[in-house]
TrEMBL record, chain A:
Keyword terms of this UniProt record: Signal
Highest taxon of source: Bacteria
Species of the source: Psychromarinibacter sediminicola
Protein name: Cytochrome c domain-containing protein
Residues annotated as signal peptide: 1-16
TrEMBL record, chain B:
GO MF annotations, alphabetized: oxidoreductase activity
Gene source species: Psychromarinibacter sediminicola
Domain of life assignment: Bacteria
Residue intervals of the Aldehyde oxidase/xanthine dehydrogenase a/b hammerhead domain: 240-317
PANTHER family on file: ALDEHYDE DEHYDROGENASE (PTHR47495), BLL3820 PROTEIN (PTHR47495:SF1)
Classification lineage: Bacteria, Pseudomonadati, Pseudomonadota, Alphaproteobacteria, Rhodobacterales
Listed name of the protein: Molybdopterin-dependent oxidoreductase
Automatic annotation (TrEMBL), chain C:
InterPro entries membership: 2Fe-2S-bd, 2Fe-2S-bd_dom_sf, 2Fe-2S_ferredoxin-like_sf, 2Fe-2S_ferredoxin-type, 2Fe2S_fd_BS, Beta-grasp_dom_sf, Diverse_Oxidoreductases
Keyword Iron-sulfur: yes
Keyword tags: 2Fe-2S, Iron, Iron-sulfur, Metal-binding, Oxidoreductase
One of the record's GO molecular function terms: oxidoreductase activity
Domain of life: Bacteria
Residue ranges constituting the 2Fe-2S ferredoxin-type domain according to the UniProt record: 1-75
Phylogenetic lineage: Bacteria, Pseudomonadati, Pseudomonadota, Alphaproteobacteria, Rhodobacterales
SUPFAM superfamilies: 2Fe-2S ferredoxin-like, CO dehydrogenase ISP C-domain like
Protein name: (2Fe-2S)-binding protein
Length: 206, 745, 153
């Protein structure tokens, strides 16, 4: 059960795992199919690998996993601050060391994850932690709350982040014995596109 | 002072010993004479007056045999010698000295004897058995049980005085001036005409003169150092990175070793090292007792290669699941399992026959020690001897254990004791050193440093014992009238002594510690303990049994005060006669402003526990905030007699409070599939800075004799916190860690 | 790899994923950097990497290529004490001392970025540095004292 200092080579470029964005024609997908796709998207964005850093205005990242019991605030009194990178206090990168693309990460159980971007919280507008599926759906369907991205741009963002060795790719390959976000990156991109082509439908009141 | 007069004749007997190449002074004797271990290494013109002082032409070395685990033992021991010897800081070096019976710990034996004498209605045979066990464990050179100060206080001042007077005698020999007319100051003998003779210049002559046999210790009014704030001699090195710990050592040609032993303390069924063998820097992969070790040219390479070894572990000899441990404890409150009835004032059974006003069950979990410096040891095995560099609290037992591994005699094992990066009881254990000796024995002639990974350290920590109490009590007319409390748990003394190779006999004194000796005298008071066999092996954890027992009795007492409608401080005082214990409670109440209304969502909680002969009262103030319970302040009053250094004791008490609070809040070891579930600090962190309150300390000095303070402030912290949370929220906490039941900021 | 430690340049042949902690301790003998947990939970290995307080156990050697590393041995320019170290002595902070190099380097970085930190700020920045002896009250006091000393120049 206990494994020490497991080293996993981190392939920082997209080359090892090519993902593509191939959007269906807008309106070519039924609402039912779109909602079904959204359910899978929600499974991903509400997964701890994603939601733990998509937290609200308290700027406190979350921890979860078998050894923590229920999900709880990040230890060590960590706050991402309004900067969302910890600049006001202890920068995230003091422990979540920023790698160059292609560099081997130091990996293992309970170690701070590392990617080839400065570790950070997602912008507070993109809060997923503690939000319902309908709330997250409405947020992702509203370009004012996605950094101006429509559904195709969201999918491209996922692809590009992965290409940079960023957070999205990490969420599907977190290492250290952590549970990855479900379905895989390509499936997630495809689901976002399916949901988008159906007109970004959201269940109301859910 | 009268004390000084009584001390002089009691102890040091000084004699001259002729040795090759010089003269050593001070074959020191208590009851049994032990040779001065410093005599062996003396050269011509070097003088050693006793096992603690060595003077040569080049310098002065003070021997400080008590291990320094961070408590400042080296400074304390040196200051006591320097006080009487008139040395300034900077004029001497310190060394831990070799393991030797001369450094026998007086206080450990005395503590055990005192505890036995205080035991009320137990049989003589039982007292003997208990004392025998404690003496076997601690009656030799050892550091633990909060005994360093009481063991050293008279002995080392006497050592300093003997050295001083003998140096004056040497000056007399040299100058013809009467020693009676001389004084000493700052490492020099001062003659009446003002001439000053440095001690180091007198060493050669001192080696020839008849030693002073009897000394008078100075009264406290003349102390230069004791009782005043001192700058610890290890402080500068510890803030500049110059302090060397065992883990930092790297003798020429050393190999680095890592080990993984069974997390279930069972057997290795099989292992496959094929992936590890070819990894960069790996020299060897070998089987060791209960596990596998890797030798490499770098610690990290050894860790990494070890991780590539696939090992199949056999089952544990104790229950695999934590729930089964608790079931075993819960099923042990039986006549067959009863260890002893420690207290039977009045007739508690009769008083409670009509029913109890309070009846509750309390739990204290397994907890890991985990000092920040992981366990480590450097060992070099050669034909004539074994050298060991490590920080250890029981040097002579360690010699025996290492000798048992390598086939040498214990006398051939040379221990170079090291400053420790914390211990809290962890460095009373031997396994990491015997494993290092096994590995080094396979590489004779090559020094090997074994460094535990933090995960190995967590997986094989012998934790604080698990314990449960069932308490009942009665109240009448606004007062507590009867207490009946049963404590069941893993017998820590037997577990630990078993690993030392000594059979444990008789009831375990640690199970009821803090409970049986609670300084209260209600009309009816019964304390019984029950030993639970077959649980995980356990060890002494800072304050040992009282860390559980204090929580049990002081939470029960708080519940009873609440049931009686009595003020928790006033009622405790009503039940107490011991003036020293009353003094600390009154002081803490005064410091905290007890009796005031703390305001909305705030609460004050009090606890008083006596352990290692020292009563400590603590009052905790908490606020129930939206983000959880916040500890605002702690007020501590203790009485361990004479205070050697008011700054160091304050630091030590604050640290003990942090230890007690942090683990009560956040830490436990639980077993699953026979293995500890907690693998590193993320799951067992004690306290961090953001949870640390203001901690105000007052050290009273009414107690008649000096005692140690390393452990006694720990036990009251948990119940005082729980009682404060009850006062603030109405939620009663009967199980540690409290994090299971409440959220903390 | 190339690395400058406390002003001295080194050239080493190590694996790119060997943590800087072990490069410093076992390859260069810079032992003021302490191993405590290996997973950034204790802060005992804190160093300044190009001026930023970092956990050396999390920095792969490749990420430290060409960097300037400051350890406790180099703080205050070697022989001279840094204001934080002086405050640590004045307040008699250390017990076992094992965590203190990390605490001091983290505190020195804090004061470089925030000359008069509040208690809240100190808690936020310093809670990643574990002290098992429980010297937190004195660390807090020493940081305030060092801040005052630095402000007065």
């Amino acid at each position: 059960m206990i494994r020490f200092l497991v080293l996993v080579l981190f392939t920082g470029s997209a080359a090892a795992q090519e993902v593509t964005v191939d959007p269906p024609e807008d309106g070519s997908v039924s609402r039912a199919e779109g909602l079904a796709a959204w359910e899978r998207v929600h499974d991903v964005v509400s997964h701890p690998r994603c939601a733990n850093c998509h937290v609200g205005a308290d700027n406190i990242p979350m921890w979860s996993g078998p050894s923590y019991g229920e999900t709880r605030p990040h230890g060590m009194f960590i706050s991402g601050g309004e900067s969302r990178i910890g600049a006001e206090f202890l920068p995230c990168s003091a422990c979540h060391v920023t790698l160059d693309a292609g560099q081997s990460r130091t990996d293992g159980p309970h170690r701070p994850p590392q990617v080839a971007l400065d570790w950070r919280l997602a912008p507070v507008d993109f809060q997923w932690f503690g939000r319902s599926s309908a709330e997250i759906c409405a947020q992702m369907a509203d370009p004012d709350r996605t950094g101006g991205r429509d559904w195709v741009a969201l999918a491209e963002h996922l692809r590009d982040d992965a290409g940079h060795g960023g957070f999205v790719k990490w969420g599907f390959d977190p290492g250290g014995g952590r549970a990855p976000a479900p379905y895989g990156l390509q499936a997630h991109i495809d689901d976002v596109l399916t949901w988008g082509a159906a007109g970004t439908p959201c269940e109301t009141g859910g | 002072m009268t004390r000084a007069a009584t001390i002089t004749r009691r102890t040091l007997l000084i004699g001259a010993t002729a040795i090759a190449g010089g003269v050593a002074f001070g074959a020191w004797a208590v009851r049994h004479p032990h040779d001065n271990p410093l005599a062996e290494g003396l050269g011509a013109g070097e003088a050693s007056f006793n096992p603690w002082v060595k003077v040569t032409g080049a310098g002065i070395t003070l021997i400080t045999p008590h291990a320094d685990l961070g408590q400042g033992a080296v400074h304390m021991q040196a200051a006591l010698i320097a006080e009487e010897m008139d040395l300034e800081f900077g004029q001497f070096d310190t060394a831990f000295g070799p393991p030797d019976p001369a450094y026998y710990n007086r206080a450990m034996a005395a503590e055990a004897g005192a505890a036995m004498a205080a035991l009320t209605p137990i049989s003589a045979a039982m007292a003997e058995a208990v004392a025998g066990g404690a003496m076997k464990l601690f009656g030799v050179q050892g550091t633990g049980g909060s005994t360093s100060a009481p063991d050293s206080f008279d002995k080392l001042r006497e050592a300093g005085a003997v050295a001083r007077e003998t140096l004056k005698r040497a000056a007399e020999e040299l100058t013809g001036v009467s020693a009676a007319e001389m004084t000493t100051e700052a490492g020099r003998v001062i003659l009446p005409d003002g001439r000053a003779l440095p001690y180091t210049d007198l060493a050669a002559v001192a080696a020839e003169v008849a030693p002073v046999r009897d000394v008078v210790l100075r009264p406290s009014s003349e102390w230069r150092l004791i009782g005043r704030p001192m700058a610890r001699i290890d402080m500068a090195d510890k803030v500049t990175g110059r302090q060397v710990y065992g883990i930092d050592l790297a003798p020429e040609g050393m190999l680095h070793a890592a080990v993984r032993t069974s997390p279930r303390r069972g057997e290795v069924l099989s292992y496959d090292a094929s992936a590890a063998a070819g990894m960069r820097g790996v020299q060897d992969v070998i089987a060791v007792t209960g596990g596998v070790a890797v030798l490499a040219d770098n610690t990290w390479r050894a860790f990494r290669a070890l991780d590539a070894v696939e090992i199949a572990w056999g089952p544990a000899a104790y229950p695999a699941e934590q729930a089964e441990h608790w079931e075993a404890v819960g099923a042990s409150f039986t006549d067959a399992r009863m260890d002893a009835e420690w207290r039977a004032d009045g007739d508690a059974a009769a008083a409670l026959s009509a029913g109890a006003d309070v009846a509750a069950e309390y739990r204290a979990p397994y907890v890991a020690h985990q000092p920040l410096e992981p366990l480590n040891a450097v060992v070099l095995v050669t034909e004539p001897r074994v050298e060991v560099w490590t920080a250890h609290q029981l040097p002579r037992f360690l010699q025996q254990r290492v000798a048992g591994v390598t086939g040498h005699d214990a006398e051939q094992v040379v221990l170079h004791n090291q400053f420790a990066g914390g211990s809290f009881g962890h460095r009373l254990e031997f396994e990491h050193v015997t494993l290092a000796a096994e590995i080094a024995n396979a590489r004779r002639g090559t020094p090997v440093k074994l460094t535990y990974s933090r995960e190995q350290d967590f997986a094989t920590d012998f934790p604080r014992h698990i314990a449960m109490a069932r308490g009942r009590g009665a109240v009448a007319d606004g007062h507590v009238t009867a207490i009946d409390i049963d404590v069941a748990g893993a017998p820590v003394t037997a577990s630990q002594m078993g690993r030392i190779g000594l059979g444990g006999a008789g009831p375990d004194t640690q199970l009821p510690a803090g409970v049986w000796n609670a300084p209260y005298g209600p009309e009816h008071f019964r304390v019984r303990s029950y030993a639970v066999p077959g649980l995980a092996p356990v060890s002494s954890w800072r304050s040992v049994g009282a860390s559980c027992g204090g929580f049990f009795i002081e939470t029960l007492m708080d519940e009873l005060c609440h049931a009686a409608g009595a003020d928790p401080v006033e009622e405790r005082l009503r039940l107490m006669t011991d003036p020293v214990a009353r003094g600390v409670l009154e002081a803490a109440a005064e410091m905290a402003g007890w009796g005031r209304d703390p305001g909305e969502d705030r609460g004050l909680g009090v606890a008083l526990v006596e352990s290692f002969g020292v009563p400590v009262a603590e009052i905790v103030e908490v606020t129930a905030t939206e983000g959880g319970i916040r500890i605002d302040a702690v007020w501590v009053a203790s009485d361990s007699g004479t205070v050697i250094d008011p700054v160091n004791i304050e630091n030590h008490i604050q640290g003990a409070v942090v230890w007690g609070l942090g683990h009560a809040m956040n830490s436990e070891i639980t077993y699953r599939d026979g293995m500890a579930e907690q693998s590193n600090y993320h799951a067992a962190e004690g306290m961090r800075m953001h949870q640390c309150p203001r901690i105000s300390v007052r050290t009273l000095e009414a107690a008649p004799r000096i005692r140690g303070i390393g452990e006694p402030p720990v036990p009251p912290a948990a119940p005082a916190l729980g009682n404060a949370i009850f006062a603030a929220t109405g939620q009663r906490l009967r199980e540690m860690p409290f994090r299971r039941h409440v959220r903390f900021v | 790899m190339r690395l400058t430690v406390n002003g001295t340049e080194h050239e080493l042949d190590v694996e790119p994923d060997m943590p800087l902690l072990w490069v410093l301790r076992d390859e260069l003998g810079v032992t003021g950097v302490k191993y405590g947990c290996g997973i950034a939970q204790c802060g005992a290995c804190t160093v300044h990497l190009d001026g930023m307080a970092m956990r050396a156990c999390q920095v792969p050697a490749a990420a430290a290529e060409g960097a300037e590393v400051l350890t406790i041995e180099g703080l205050g320019g070697g022989d001279a004490l840094h204001a934080v170290q002086r405050a640590w002595i004045d307040e008699q902070v250390a017990q076992c001392g094992y965590c203190q190099a990390g605490q001091i380097l983290q505190a020195a970085w804090l004061l470089e970025t925030s000359p008069a930190p509040s208690d809240e700020e100190i808690d936020r920045v310093m809670s990643g540095n574990l002290c098992r002896c429980g010297t937190y009250p004195r660390i807090r006091a020493a940081i305030h004292a060092a801040a005052a000393a630095l402000r007065e120049g």
